[in-house]
Amino acid sequence: MPGETLVFQAGIGEQSTPRSRSQRGGGTIKAILWTAILIYGAFVAYKILPAYVAEYQLADKMQEQARYANVNRYSEDQVRDNIFKVVQDLDIPVKREEIKVVANQAMVKIDIEYTVPVDLLVYHLNLHFTPSSENKSLT
Fold first, then answer.
1. Strand pairing partners for 116?
2. Spans of all domains in the chain
3. Which of 24, 32, 43, 114 is 20 to 30 Å from 73 by CA-CA measure?
4. Of 106, 115, 123, 43, whose CA–CA distance to 70 is shortest?
């Protein structure tokens, strides 16, 4: 039809679906909750991991000292003093008397038992460690 112009009006006859009230903010609350959980998880790791790293370093030094003590024929007090220096450097809550050392010509054995208290704000955790090392003489 000549001379007629067709006009299209957007939105006529279309219905927009309104969002229900229960859906508003649901994603925001989940995001905040998960962010808080992740932050608390990082905080827990920050508090706990140093104790495990220190225990690993102590166990490594104990093995090293057991080998050297066996070769160099260190006395029990010398071994205990060397281990106590390491314990102090690593800030591990152990007294000198709590380091058990058996050193004779056949073997050197070192045992330590200690607990590290960890405050996690909502929970108090006690980490219990018992590193030990033993080295037997080849002769």
1. 127
2. 50-136
3. 114
4. 106
